[in-house]
Specification:
Rossmann fold, binds 4-nitrophenyl phosphate
């Protein structure tokens, strides 16, 4: 079986999905799992840019350096390449379904889902977009994505 692979997708790939990527990387290292992990945005405005300074600062609080991450837009090959794709909010999930190749959606919608569906009691909810927000909003994003990452790893080792 090929190595499991996970892609996280938000709007800009500079605030939320880089933190989700960092959280899952940390959890998989701690669990001794080898997993391909990446993140992307449904929008391409920030392609090539590092994460938002507030996301870099939030990750640093948890001992993780994400300053080398670079934003990119989702591409059609992602739907072939990644075993699981998680949207950070319902709007990005709708957008992913709109751009996904028909074969992908027909074959296995189970591979595309909402990140917070991993967390009991939070099903259907968004990781709130912190772009226009405060440092506290970025801390709340970390709380959400790190909890989801723990649930995902628990599901993988089960
Ligand atoms: P993200 O946050 O989707 O979590 O990366 C945003 C980043 C940029 C914009 C919106 C949200 N923007 O409008 O440029």
């Amino acid at each position: 079986m090929s190595q499991p692979s996970v892609l996280f997708v938000c709007l800009g790939n500079i605030c939320r999905s880089p933190l989700a990527e960092a959280a899952l990387r940390a959890e998989t290292v701690a669990a001794g799992l080898a997993i391909t992990i990446d993140s992307a945005g449904t929008g391409g405005w920030h392609a090539g840019n590092p994460p938002d300074a507030r996301s870099i600062a939030e990750a640093a609080k948890h001992g993780i350096d994400i300053s080398g991450y670079r934003a990119r837009q989702v591409r059609p090959q992602d739907f072939q390449h990644f075993g699981q794709i998680f949207a950070l909010d319902p709007q990005n999930l709708r957008d992913l379904k709109r751009i996904a190749p028909h074969e992908f959606l027909g074959r296995s919608t189970a591979r595309l889902g909402l990140l917070m569906d991993l967390v009991p009691g939070r099903e259907g909810s968004a990781v709130i977009d912190p772009y226009g927000g405060t440092e506290e909003d970025f801390a709340a994003v970390w709380g959400d994505v790190s909890e989801a990452a723990r649930r995902l790893v628990a599901r993988m080792v089960r």
